[in-house]
Amino acid sequence: QVQLQESGPGLVKPSQTLSLTCTVSGGSILTNDYYWAWIRQPPGKGLEWMGAIANTGSTFYNPSLKSRTSISRDTSKNQFTLQLNSVTPEDTAVYYCARAKGPIVRVTTKRSDYDYWGQGTQVTVSS
User: Fold this and answer.
1) Can you say how many angstroms the Cα of residue 93 is from the centroid of all Cα atoms in its chain?
2) pLDDT digits (tens, 9 = 90+) for 79-92
3) Which residue, of 5, 25, 48, 73, has the greatest Cβ tally within 10 A?
């Protein structure tokens, strides 16, 4: 079974950079025809697709977040990361990493489009 686990700070101050790591076990982030996504859910709101990284290392971003977002990976650790710069309280959300079937990266927040999800991690942006 593939398992994903988010890790990182639960509290970030405004203007700082949020860095989260998704650790994958039971499967490789290099496996062909899968991609790995970051999705978040602000309190009381729906899911927001942030971006994804394919098994090739190609990255894709939500245009509304692209200027502040960077997704990368460490293949030796089977991890991929999210960096979100210049955070504000509007970035407070539960952040999820998830896996979806490729090869085409789809912009989707439909839960069933992802075969594996992390449990999510709460991130609060506050001074």
Assistant:
1) 12
2) 999 999 999 999 99
3) 73
Encode burial over 107-116: b for 16+ CB neighbours within 10 A, e otherwise: eeeeeeebeb
Tokens representing 104?
């085409």
**Taking the CA atoms of the chain, what radius of gyration do you get in angstroms?**
13
Distance separating the N- and C-terminal Cα atoms of the chain: 39
Question: What are the backbone dihedrals phi and psi of residue 112, each rounded to the nearest 5 degrees, phi first?
Answer: -70, -10
For residues 70 and 77, give the distance between their C-alpha atoms in angstroms, rounded to a whole number.
18
CA–CA distances in Å: residue 10 to residues 16, 25, 32, 100:
13, 22, 32, 25
The whole-angstrom separation of Cα 82 and Cα 116 is 18
> Could you report the per-residue pLDDT of 44-103, keeping only the tens digit for each?
999 999 999 999 999 999 999 999 999 999 999 999 999 999 999 999 999 999 999 988
Evaluate whether 96 touches 117 at the Cβ level (below 8 Å). yes
Which residues does 70 contact at the CB level (< 8 Å), separation at least 6? 59, 82, 83, 85
- Letter for the amino acid at 124? T
